[in-house]
User: What shape does this take?
Amino acid sequence: MSPSPAATPVPFLNFASMIRELRPDLDAAYARVMDSGRFLLGPELEQFETEFAAACDVRHCIGVASGLDALQLSLRVLDIGPGDEVLVPAHTFIATFLAVSQVGARPVPVDVSPRGFNLDPERLEAACTPRTRAIIPVHLYGEPADMPAIQHFAARRGLHVLEDAAQAHGARVAGRIVGGWGGLAAFSFYPGKNLGAFGDGGAVTTNDARLAERLRALRNYGGVRKYEHLELGFNSRLGELQAAFLRVRLACLPEWNQRRRKRAVAYASALTGLAELDCPTPSPATDPVWHLYVVCHPHRDCLRHWLQQRGIDTLVHYPLPPHRTPAYAGLNPLDFPRAQQLAETVVSLPMGPHLSPDELRRVADAVAEFCAGHAAHSQGFCRALAKAAVPHHA
Ligand SMILES: *Cc1c(COP(=O)(O)O)cnc(C)c1O
Assistant: This one.
């Protein structure tokens, strides 16, 4: 059961191939910005905002400095602040919680659906108090949350809905693309996202012209025109260079998402039914964009070790629910069994538009071999594996 040491590594996400494919267009974008002499709030940003709004089927897009800022500024224009509570999924990246804390409100975690990775709409009612003002559903791993149910609940309760779409550019639920379901949606263009910049970036999408106008002011010192400060603002702009690069990435987003879907299908057919392994089973009402391909195994760390020995990179999204991190030690320490179970068992396999069929086959074979060996020998298998441990970078 020793791995072959000569195996070529399988990277988690292949940036080199990604850039190779786009290089001529990225170079042209770079040259366009340098020749323009405009670096902030110029024509590239305006064009990108128009193109991204169209791609999300919404009227307005406001580029900002990061996904976290997109969330935080959205909460501000909804006038959410101290004394308010915002419902967030208990299983998410910490940014969803941090945005709420940054405006002085309190994130209230809601557990995840028994099957799946997203907020359970059935649990919203129990988490509501008279202070609840908004819900932030997260489309985690590229699979949309149950937006029809969440919208229905929010409308009945008079709550705002802010989508955290940082992992789901182009995903659909009930036939409709994410970004226009709630009043506002926040996107991240962190390099590893499905639509990534070459540095930080983010955007808010909305159909509400008044909220859009206020966001444009808030991101730019509180005013749209220079030295006109209507309210206490921020410096949170999406630069021209990043906007120009993002236009290149946006043009191939549909095709690259399609390649991810194909790889998810291939993974599912190779991994479904393996002992002790849970594969993602998105609701048929959704069309996910597979930002990550996340499986669950009760001995996740042992599986990761096995794959690492075979040169296969994996990651864990995320090893601790945000409310269990030291940063949130003061938060109500309620138990969220499903979120806890996910934190202990999830592992993200290599996934991306440039993962080759051969690489995917190697990952799937290694996972299958592990599952068979582990099921046969259980704990002893992990102990033997730890003893036989070889350095990852010989
Ligand atoms: C990446 C991410 C964010 C934050 O985006 P940044 O651009 O890194 O600030 C927020 N929420 C989720 C779910 C994310 O994955």
User: Anything to note?
Assistant: The chain has two domains: 16-111+119-249, 254-388. Residues 66-68, 92-93, 95-96, 138, 164, 166-167, 188, 190, 200, 202 surround pyridoxal-5'-phosphate (CB under 6 Å). The first strand starts at residue 60 and ends at 64.
